[in-house]
Predict the 3D structure of the following.
Amino acid sequence: MSVRFAENTRPSRRQHSTRVPTRFDLSLSENPFPPLPSVRYAIQQAAAQANRYPEFVPRRLPTLIAQRLGVRADQVVVGAGATGVAMQILQTLATPGSRMVHGTPTFDGYPIIAEMTGVHTVPVPLDSHGDHDLPAMLRAIDTRTALVVVCRPHNPTGTVIPAHELIAFLSEVPARVPVILDEAYVEFLGAADCFDLRPLIARHANLLVLRTFSKAYGLAGLRIGYALGRSELIARVHRLQLPFGVSTAAVAAVAASYAAESELITRTRRITEQRDVVRAELRARGIAVPESQANFLYLPGPGVTTALRRAGIAGKSYADGSARVAVGDPAADRAVLRALTPAPRPPSHSG
């Protein structure tokens, strides 16, 4: 089934109806579960030292991440969530008046930080399946292009570019143009869609892989993000590292999360299993929901946003009435299904 994907609306904050109290806020694709007990304990222990400054320039966190991923610490730069690191990247690699090519709709943070840095966005519509139109993105690159953004899985559709298509795309992008591969939801990917990024980084000096601890790890409130890449490119981004910008609690939470990886995998599996159940039920209701590999579902409109608001559910809304909703909270998922269940038709009476 062909689906029309709406352009991004002007980025908005959490959306609440003035008439119906919001029972479920599913607009930010947050993890529905609080941090694991061991992670909460680590945060509490770190909070006891909150009167002390963290590291002037973060070294422990990049080292932790690098050891986990099998890269060198000088290939990692960290910041205030993936958005904060993306901001560092634009400030470093783009100049006012240059251009950033991305699919649309996309993560709201990119238009926001582009406007803040004076970078012009070049939105390329997704195809009818909610995937990046990679050939069109290549055609959109010109002499003024400073950055290209590709999301895998994509936000807001949850679709995934096959690895071979991504590899071919990177080979076609001019080497002078940095590419942000946004993997904010990579932990939700199925095994068939995962691959080792290290050879890709080694092959492409212009590639930056952006990740976060906000989604699968459930640490959105601690603002922990990072980028991987060749050390030369990472060094350029690192020049804008904010002093004292990574809290001691964030470092402690990441270390504890890595130690509790098996528990986090179990949680992630619960979310993805619930996601697939909800998608199947929505499609049975006639809603052409794309196959998502993230912790959210994109619900094509028109009228979806309105139906959700009437039920007290806040989703991320789009211009044509479509919405993106986080999944994984059973009560919220049931509420979404009820909100989008057509009302029964009254019986007809034949004369």
Q: What stands out?
A: Confidence is low (pLDDT under 50) at residues 9-17. The chain has two domains: 24-33+262-339, 37-259. The first helix runs from residue 37 to 47. The longest strand covers residues 145-151.
